[in-house]
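Question (not urgent): is this output format expected?
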Amino acid sequence: MTKTAVVAIGGNSLVRDKEHQSVPDQFATTDETCVHIAEMIKQGWRVVVTHGNGPQVGFILLRSELASNVLHTVPLDSCGADTQGALGYMIQQLLGKRLRRADADIPVVTVVTQVVVDGDDPAFRNPTKPIGPFYDEDRARHYERTEGWAIVEDAGRGWRRVVPSPIPMEIVELEAIRTLLEAGFVVVGVGGGGIPVVRDEQGDLRGVEAVIDKDYASSLLATGLEADLFLISTAVEKVYLNYGKPDQRPLDHLTVEEARQYLEGGHFPPGSMGPKIRAVVQFMERGGSEALITSPENLARALRGETGTRITLA
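Got this back:
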């Protein structure tokens, strides 16, 4: 029986560094990752690809601000939709090319995906997710007064807008993604964690100014699809304890209980590996059986058990 994997690719799979941010640069970087995803599909996996969009949303917000004297600004939920389309197009084109070159002419399609959040989520009272460009304090305070932004000083680099990062509750287009997957498509979905929406008393959806964590939304998608594997592609080949310290230690295997203990012990910081491990734990607690964390270039080797960090129930 064909197995299903949700493959969550991180920002390093789309934007290599600050010197390679143009659209052609993003195509070149993403193509490298698509080579390895195509190999995975060639091996027989049914795949849904999810992706981050942080830098791209930042670019749209900056363009919107610079053009605000002649054009309307772009709401954050529309920024998410814009990037889902643009990045989905890029992945469709590149992954389709790589599949054809591997003699596997499988269609790739993008689903613009809404994700329901709770309008009463505590995150809306405590915005923490930095987005967009850095400002000096005077300009940041101006936006605070005129636009109602929440702003914070960001590690000595300047002032930034912060927005809520609520917990994803429901993927609106889940059945559409499932139908396409079962029909033989490779699907790109839940880009950037999905477009955050709330549902009113009549069941109607409305976009909100928020950012959903991509790994949490990907975990929810993997649960909804009853995926056999939740694979997170990130900047490192394996998960490490004491990462970046002289005594850092790579982890080849983790049980869910060990992952919980390391999280509680503060081994995985909130701004880096923490959300990925937490997303994996959520997937396993909801019925998942296996997860894998590795870098894009090591996807095929990790699937063969040669590298990466594998997380299982026991």
